[in-house]
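ok posting inputs for the flavin-adenine dinucleotide job
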Amino acid sequence: MVAEAERRDLNVRVAGSGHSFTPVVGTGGLLLSLAQMSGVRSVNAAKKQVTVAAGTRIHDLGVALKGLGFSLINQGDIDAQAVAGAFITGTHGTGIKLPCLATSIAGMRLVKADGSVHVVDGGNQELLHAAQVSIGTLGVISELTLQVRDAYNLHEHVWRDDFETCMQRHDELAATHRHFGFFWCPTPQSRHMYCIADTADAPRSTTKKTADVCEMKVMDISDKPAMDTPFEKIAYSSEIYPMVYVPNFHELEYAVPVQHGKEALRAVRELMLTKHTNCIYPVEYRFTAGDPAWLSPFHHQDSIALSVSGQPGLDYWDYLRDVDAILRRYGSRPHWGKMHFLDTDDVTALYPRANDFRALRKKFDPKGRFLNDHMRMLLG
Ligand SMILES: Cc1cc2nc3c(=O)[nH]c(=O)nc-3n(C[C@H](O)[C@H](O)[C@H](O)COP(=O)(O)OP(=O)(O)OC[C@H]3O[C@@H](n4cnc5c(N)ncnc54)[C@H](O)[C@@H]3O)c2cc1C
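and the output
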């Protein structure tokens, strides 16, 4: 189909599961869905690597890995995405020592514009690091080889603390747990906008405040048997990571260098409490370790992934622009799948390997067959 698109002079993009907030998918040409290309294709038990079809949903991969005695190293807040779609935008979970999911890509099979196949593997580290976060601009990925680890259970604790307690315990909680992250909720309604459980009476809660609080979550590897109370749970890794989101939201997220995380959050909080008081979606605050992928928002930079959301139907643009202005002060880089205001020059300034990537992209796809307007502006 890719070769046929070339013959008909059509651009090509692939839809994962359509969970990106940015126009990274659309095309007026050929839009492919690999949803039917799903499942584990092979397992290398010695290397702890699995090769999966690119359209496999993360949820389905978790189920398959559990059966194989493996787990993904980390996951994000939902598991509805296609593996390729999620991993190649730099999707991440939380954990000060855990890099984004793309770093577990050990290889991939890429269909190039002329329909030929290029295999990327660890033999060419430069190409691997370019391809790990490439937002569909090098070709169609038909399968991915992922580094996994032996299956593990996670023990999750959720509780509520007031904002200052959270700030005081920030470093300690990040250092002493495999995963630590929190949502700051400016109003009592805020947590419902993200379907966060009401932890008011949670045993570890130190406050009964309902406004301006942080919903805190830690997760650690556990060998204890499964348990499930309202605010504590132990289960297989992939059954712990995902949350449930029901209401819709439009999210902006930037990776803030970790040393500026608390200051950036304080500035965003002040903005929400004083200027944009109608913007009440929680702020999500997560940790991600730096990695070598050329276009990773965490490129060689341990970071805080700080996100805010606008309510669909409201004019939230002034709010998002104000948040963008704050986060830019720290040299923060956006999540490619979440709203941002970057242009060509910003990408060049923020990503030391941006021009290397553009040159490589042109080598792989000289006619820009795999670009759309948005990707051409950023990486063309
Ligand atoms: C409710 C919600 C929760 C989220 N939670 C998190 C989170 O916890 N952490 C986080 O980091 N992000 C999160 N995200 C963002 C999300 O993980 C990313 O936007 C991700 O890219 C979406 O995956 P997808 O399968 O929907 O891909 P799409 O949005 O469909 O595609 C993403 C990109 O990948 C390309 N692509 C997809 N498949 C292929 C392929 N086979 N070959 C070549 N290119 C391909 C597409 O063309 C596009 O450029 C969340 C989003 C939502 C809506």
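notes: Residues 13-20, 24-25, 34, 54, 76-78, 81-82, 84-86, 88-89, 91-92, 135-136, 140-141, 245, 335, 337 surround flavin-adenine dinucleotide (CB under 6 Å). The chain has two domains: 2-150+344-379, 153-334.
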